[in-house]
Design goal:
Elements (H helix, E strand, L loop, with lengths): L1 H29 L4 H26 L4 H19 L3 H16 L7 E5 L5 E8 L3 E6 L2 E6 H4 L3 E4 L5
Antiparallel strand pairs: 1-2, 1-5, 2-3, 3-4
C-alpha cells in the first residue's frame, strides 16, 4: 500500500513540476524575459518542490513528523551557519523571484534608481539571478536585486 502511495505522490510531483515549469515559461515569454532567467526561476522552484516531495515521501513511509522536522531543522541549521556570512545570496535569490513576477521594468527600459546619496540613471541591460545591470554613459553598473527592491525605481519616458 505504501508503494502505491509513493507512486501516486511521485506522479503528482512530476505533474505539478511540469505544470509549474510550463506556467513559469509562459509568464516569462509573456513578459519578454530572457530564457536563462526563466531557467533560473524554474530550477529554484524545482528545488523547493523536491523538498516538499521528500517530506511527503518520508511521511508516507511512516517516519514520524517530529523526526522529519528534526532532520530538516538540523539541515537548515547547517545551511544557515554555512550561509550566515553570505545572507545576501539568499536575499538576492528571493529578490530575483520577486523581480521575475512583479518587477514592472524590462531589459531595454530607461530607468532612474533613486538613492539617497546618488541617483543612478541608465538603460537596463540585464536582469540576472543576483543583480540588475544598468548602462550609464557607457559604464555598466551592477545593482544587487535585493537593493533594487528597496529603492524607488522610476521609468524614464522616451520623450524625457
Amino acid at each position: 500500500m505504501k508503494f502505491l502511495l509513493i507512486v501516486g505522490v511521485l506522479v503528482t510531483y512530476l505533474v505539478c513540476t511540469a505544470s509549474l515549469s510550463r506556467l513559469i515559461s509562459s509568464i516569462g515569454r509573456s513578459r519578454d524575459v530572457v530564457d536563462y532567467r526563466i531557467t533560473y526561476i524554474n530550477k529554484t522552484l524545482n528545488i523547493a518542490m523536491s523538498l516538499v516531495f521528500l517530506i511527503v515521501v518520508f511521511l508516507v513511509l511512516g517516519i514520524e513528523y517530529s523526526q522529519v522536522s528534526l532532520f530538516l531543522s538540523s539541515v537548515f541549521a547547517v545551511i544557515g551557519v554555512a550561509l550566515f556570512a553570505q545572507w545576501s545570496i539568499l536575499s538576492n535569490i528571493t529578490a530575483s523571484l520577486i523581480i521575475f513576477f512583479a518587477f514592472p521594468y524590462r531589459v531595454g527600459d530607461k530607468v532612474r534608481v533613486v538613492d539617497k546619496d546618488d541617483d543612478i540613471s541608465g538603460v537596463i541591460e540585464e536582469i540576472s539571478l543576483f543583480h540588475v545591470m544598468i548602462r550609464k554613459n557607457g559604464d555598466l553598473i551592477t545593482y544587487p536585486n535585493n537593493m533594487i527592491l528597496q529603492k524607488a525605481v522610476i521609468k524614464i519616458s522616451s520623450e524625457g
